[in-house]
From TrEMBL:
Family label: Belongs to the SdhE FAD assembly factor family.
Name of the protein this chain belongs to: FAD assembly factor SdhE
SUPFAM superfamilies: YgfY-like (SSF109910)
Gene3D superfamilies: Flavinator of succinate dehydrogenase
Length: 88
């Protein structure tokens, strides 16, 4: 992955959202799943990162509904939150 400029850029953006909560969710999702993504899934993730942190966290926590445009297999994986690691 380190040789691919696109993936390096995506990784940086995923981990530098602006809030720690969004860094852990978006960055953690990237770390866990990016190696499995095809071109369409990478494009989905890049669009997803354009959303506001508050919305992403709300979807992840289930406090606001996921808009229809984001529903599907990628969002289903994201909502599992099986990738969030919080360090002490």
């Amino acid at each position: 992955m380190n040789d691919d400029p696109q993936m390096r850029r995506i990784k940086f953006r995923a981990w530098h959202r602006g809030t720690r909560e969004a860094d852990y969710t978006v960055g953690g999702f990237f770390e866990r799943y990016h190696g499995e993504w095809n071109a369409d899934e990478i494009a989905w993730f890049e669009r997803f990162m354009e959303e506001q942190d508050a919305d992403i966290i709300g979807w992840a926590l289930g406090t606001i509904p996921v808009p229809d445009e984001w529903k599907g297999p990628m969002m289903d994986r994201f909502l599992k939150l099986d990738f969030v690691k919080i360090e002490n």
